[in-house]
């Protein structure tokens, strides 16, 4: 069996939820999407239907699984809890206005990469679980000659991975709307996977950038 040196990796953010609309922190709370909003993903559905995916992965949370079900892809999905959003602990369901006077919240805003969210997750723990998932994904792609992979996940996961493979891009520079995503074309060079290009999904080739 041959090995693959190229990979198109589609990272898709789930559809919108009530808490997303209300700008509440939503991490591990298992809230579903707003069903009436799924039709807004029709362009995404149309684009992805054209592609045969060798593998599909999804976060185990309802908002990702429901979005994936709407897209109605032919490939069976592997469910993986490592693809969850950051766990916001005591701040789940709260807004900036709710928390802005909280001393621990202020500390986190000033040093979010180092600070442990109360009863939640540190950024180090978040990165570690995603890195482990990606390491397995790339190994599996190489060994089993998989060249098209879709990952249905969350905004923070996509931000982290894009900033990881494009070092010139900071975590907060990455903006992915609900029901949108990115296509990363990866190439294996000297044993490491590097990103050759990034496109917004649904594709905007006729747009201005």
From TrEMBL:
Q: CDD domains, per this entry?
A: HP_PGM_like
What keywords is this UniProt entry annotated with? Hydrolase
Is DNA repair included in the keywords of this UniProt record? Answer: no
Concerning InterPro entries, the annotation shows: His_Pase_superF_clade-1 (IPR013078), His_PPase_superfam (IPR029033), Phosphoglycerate_Mutase (IPR051695)
Instruction: Give the protein name, as stated in the record.
Output: Alpha-ribazole phosphatase
Cellular compartments per GO CC = cytosol
* Residues annotated to bind substrate: 13-20, 63
Gene Ontology biological process? negative regulation of glycolytic process; regulation of pentose-phosphate shunt
Q: Which PANTHER family match?
A: FRUCTOSE-2,6-BISPHOSPHATASE TIGAR
């Amino acid at each position: 069996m041959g090995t693959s040196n190229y990979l198109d990796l589609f990272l898709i953010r789930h559809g919108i939820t009530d808490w997303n609309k209300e700008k509440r922190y939503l991490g591990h709370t298992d809230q579903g999407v707003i069903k009436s909003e799924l039709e807004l993903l029709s362009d995404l559905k149309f684009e992805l239907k054209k592609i045969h995916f060798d593998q599909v992965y999804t976060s185990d949370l309802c908002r990702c699984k429901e979005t994936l079900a709407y897209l109605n892809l032919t490939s069976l999905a592997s469910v993986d809890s490592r693809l969850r959003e950051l766990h916001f602990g005591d701040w789940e369901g709260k807004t900036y206005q709710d928390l802005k006077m909280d001393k621990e919240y202020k500390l986190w805003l000033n040093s979010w990469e180092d600070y442990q969210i109360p009863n939640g997750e540190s950024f180090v723990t978040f990165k570690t679980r995603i890195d482990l998932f990606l390491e397995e994904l790339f190994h599996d792609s190489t060994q089993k000659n998989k060249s098209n992979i879709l990952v249905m996940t969350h905004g923070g996961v996509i931000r982290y991975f894009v900033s990881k493979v494009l070092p010139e891009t900071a975590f907060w520079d990455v903006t992915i709307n609900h029901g949108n995503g990115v296509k990363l074309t990866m190439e294996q060079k000297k044993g490491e996977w590097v990103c050759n290009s990034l496109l917004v999904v649904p594709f905007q080739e006729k747009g201005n950038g």
